[in-house]
Specification:
The chain contains 11 helices and 11 strands. By secondary structure, the chain is an alpha+beta fold. It has 3 domains: 178 residues, Beta-Lactamase (2-Layer Sandwich); 108 residues; 134 residues, Histidine kinase-like ATPase, C-terminal domain (Heat Shock Protein 90, 2-Layer Sandwich). Strand 4 and strand 5 form a beta hairpin. It comes from Marinomonas gallaica.
């Protein structure tokens, strides 16, 4: 896996992880909140229904009150009328009233008349609840609620039910009415379904946003990678062009030096040798021939010096024989002897362990700096400092000369050569100059410190 893929993974994976954690926590909180809200909702609905049961019983008692307070009616007549009224009273679709004696004998049951006059004191629902005994106990305690399972009309299916009962004190009858919880459960189920649907929709929305975000990150990464590739290709092409141009320039200079220097000297040597040959054939005096040979020898020595100079310019022998430290010191010493300018040199101790391409780059940049100082600066002091800090080699060459206007001199061939040489080794070139105060050339080149330390 390459570096760009790793960077992409480091971007996408934390995003997915954080989204997953936030989504999980959100869903967990939403479910917990849903259960709490539904519990509160159910409790409120039950309380509302309880109050409704009380209201229904009070209305029934209001209907029975004239009969119960009429002392002119006998108990038999009054009981008959009460039972008739309770039988006929109903509300909603399944609301009815019932009545029992203290012995558990059913007196009124509109939906199941077969129970009338039967003793149901020991009747149990499917969960073993003695519901009539529970209702009597609630009524005898001053009125109350009791929960049990009973058949709901009209389908007569067993459902969870709650009743509210009171005493008809004239005969100690237990009278009451009840409600079924199936509609409450249905409302809760519907509400739960809607909430779950909302949670699901929210989850899909989060997943959609996440997918869109990841896709956007990937596309943006691909776009940036493509853009970087194009920039890198353009930079590489530019560097290749500069390198080729530098090679052509150096080869042209080398060709010119060979043609104008070495070639002319060799032609002169050949002329002297031919002259000596002709004189020997003609029998010219030996003294004259010796003088021509001495001149030929001088020209050949000059040719040898020219060849050495060209060879040194192509690849300084000091770099191979003694290393970069000695080569730079030699450059400064020659410069100081030639110009009478005081030079100062300070460098790190492991310069001779640098890669070959960095060594030749530093040597050529130093050469170019000294050449520019000699030609233009009229300086009295030159300082050269080289150090390695934080994985970068820092180069600094300072002179106290006249300085120059940066805007007018940035296109000089020497400065361009230095900049291009440094770019070929991924270096950065900077030039600072102030008129009347001098010039400072700085460069920074990335180096592998581990490789430098291990190099023999």
């Amino acid at each position: 896996m390459n570096l760009k893929s790793k960077i992409m993974m480091l971007t996408v994976l934390p995003l997915l992880g954080v989204t997953a954690v936030i989504t999980y926590l959100g869903l967990t909180y939403a479910r917990s909140l849903t259960h709490q809200e539904l519990a509160v909702y159910e409790q409120r609905m039950v309380e509302t229904r309880k109050q409704a049961l009380k209201d229904h019983v009070e209305i029934a008692m209001s209907a029975l009150r004239p009969i119960l307070d009429d002392t002119s009616l006998s108990d038999v007549e009054a009981q008959y009328r009460v039972r008739e009224i309770l039988t006929q009273l109903n509300y909603s679709e399944d609301g009815y009233f019932f009545a029992y004696t203290q012995e558990g004998v059913n007196l009124v049951h509109p939906t199941q008349p077969d129970f009338v006059d039967q003793n149901l004191l020991d009747f149990q629902d499917r969960e073993g609840n003695y519901l009539i005994q529970g209702l009597l106990e609630a009524a005898n305690s001053g009125g109350g609620f009791h929960r049990y399972i009973w058949e709901k009309p009209p389908l007569m299916q067993q459902e969870d039910k709650m009743s509210y009962v009171v005493l008809i004190e004239r005969w100690n009858w237990m009278m009451g009415t009840g409600l079924y919880f199936d509609d409450i459960y249905q409302d809760l189920k519907t509400t739960q379904s809607k909430i779950n649907q909302n949670i699901t929709n929210s989850l899909f929305t989060v997943l959609f946003i996440l997918g869109f975000t990841v896709l956007l990150v990937v596309l943006l990464g691909l776009f940036i990678n493509l853009h970087e590739h194009r920039l890198a290709d353009a930079r590489l092409k530019s560097l290749i062009k500069r390198f080729i141009r530098m090679q052509i320039s150096e080869r042209r200079q080398f060709s010119r030096e060979l043609h104008d220097g070495i070639n002319q000297l060799l032609v002169s040597s050949k002329f002297r040798v031919e002259l000596v040959t002709n004189k020997l054939k003609k029998g010219v005096q030996v003294e004259t021939i010796e003088q021509d040979l001495v001149e030929a020898e001088r020209v050949i020595d000059q040719t040898i010096q020219e060849v050495r100079l060209i060879s040194h310019n192509l690849r300084p022998t000091l770099l191979d024989d003694l290393g970069l430290q000695a080569a730079l010191k030699g450059l400064l010493e020659q410069f100081s002897e030639r110009t009478n300018i005081f030079t100062e040199y300070e460098a790190t101790s492991n310069l001779d362990k640098l890669p070959e391409e960095v060594e030749i780059t530093l040597y050529r940049v130093t050469q170019e700096c000294l050449s520019n100082i000699e030609k233009h600066a009229q300086a009295t002091h030159v300082s050269l400092k080289i150090s390695i800090k934080k994985g970068h080699l820092q180069f600094e060459c300072y002179d106290d000369g006249y300085g120059f206007n940066l805007g007018e001199s940035q296109k000089g061939i020497g400065l361009i050569n230095m900049r291009e040489r440094l770019e070929l080794v991924e270096g950065v070139f900077e030039l600072h100059s102030i008129m009347g105060e001098g010039t400072k050339v700085t460069a920074s080149i990335p180096v592998n410190l581990a490789a430098v330390d291990k190099k023999p």
